[in-house]
Amino acid sequence: MTESLSSNIVVEAAEKLLRDLADPQKINHTKDDNWQSTLWTTLEDSGLPLSWVSEKLGGSGASMTEGFALLHLAGRYALPVPMAETMLAGWLLSQATIPSPSGAMTVAPLNPNDRIMLDGEGTLSGHARAIPFALQSDHVAILAQAPSGLHIALIKRSDCQYKSIPSLSGDDVADLTLKCVKPVILRPAPAHWTSKTLALMGATARSLQIGGALQWILMQTITYSTERVAFKKQISKFQAIQHNLARLASETAAATTAASSAAQSLCMEDICSEGVFLEASSSKIRCAEAAATSCAIAHQVHGAIGFTAEHTLHRFTLRALAWRDDFGNETYWSIALGQAVASLGSNQLWPLITSR
After folding, report:
1. pLDDT above 70 for 239
2. pLDDT band at 292 (very low <50, low <70, confident <90, very high)
């Protein structure tokens, strides 16, 4: 699915834009952060962050397929701006026909175990941990719980209490605390949604980003192994390196295939369907595992240079590793998937697997 996605005109235009403004090597050697505002302004002017929002609600009205392709592309450039988060926030708001505001947005909660509650007076309270780009975002799209059911809300980030926390990726991450926050807009979520619905969409988005990052890591590692000479020959000629490169390629292929399959399911099925849960949870598990293995191999091949701030490798490996935890890590989804399969009974396991 990834190859077919990357061939559409939206992605081709986005890739040209990112080649010009988000080249990892250029960013790595820039001494200030002025490039970041230029990149975000250009992305926003192009309508890419609100791809999944209809024109009527303030977006560009791209298809789900095009949006997922953009997320994969964002992973291949390890974008250090909140494009993926704004896309997810816009998608969440549009499910309740809430117009998307201009500017950067993020979405909460990311941790499936966090809860933001809606009280009888229409205010929101709760805690959302490790929200990416929280301090750079003007608004936050919220999935809130109430006795009457799930609700979707748009709030101003400035109405929250926030605490910046260290992040593996180096990007802006903060814990948000809401205390009787009055939403800008509040509407009921679709009636069939569950508390896992946002997590499933987010898990698929992060899987696609991980897959994109691993593709860049694979390409970079192969290139380096053919250029680096040790004992008078390219290190790519050593059997141990060849074995590692083959394993890195297989992990990358597995991750991109799993992520593409989950995205395809979301394009064709209802997000609350059994099939989407199976695909999205399996994808996040497999991509998280692939990230851990692939990043270790890439740094082994690169040696000490891959850990230096001057090299671009860390921009991708650290973000891929950080994305493993967003919207549920592999442990969370492994338990959830195991419980779902067990509840179906042993007679349904094989039909479920073969139906995909």
Report:
1. yes
2. very high
Choose the final residue of a domain: 168, 188, 208.
188
| Residue closest to 10 by CA, chosen among 38, 50, 56, 57 | 50
Strands 151-156 and 139-144: antiparallel
Contacts of 2 (CB under 8 A, 6+ apart): 69, 72, 211, 256, 259, 260
Q: How confident is the model at residue 4 (pLDDT cuts 50, 70, 90)?
A: very low
Q: What is the b/e burial string over 98-121, where b = at least 16 CB atoms within 10 angstroms of the residue's CB? A: bebbeebbbbbbbbbebebebeee
DSSP per position, 258-289: HHHHHHHHHHHS-TTSHHHHHHHHHHHHHHHH
How many domains is the chain partitioned into structurally?
2
The pLDDT assigned to 349 comes to 80
The span from the CA of 300 to the CA of 223, in Å, is 14
Q: Which residue has the tokens 């929250």?
A: 160
The residue from 152, 169, 188 where one domain ends is 188
Query: Could you count the other beta carbons within 10 Å of the beta carbon of residue 180?
Result: 11
Average pLDDT over residues 59-85: 95
Helices (H), 133-238: 197-227
Residue 309 confidence class, pLDDT cut points 50, 70, 90 = confident
In angstroms, the first-to-last Cα distance of the chain is 15
Provide the pLDDT confidence category of residue 344 given band limits of 50, 70 and 90.
confident
Residues 20 and 152 in one domain: yes
Cβ neighbours, 10 Å, residue 122: 13
Question: What DSSP element (H or E) covers 108?
Answer: strand 105-108
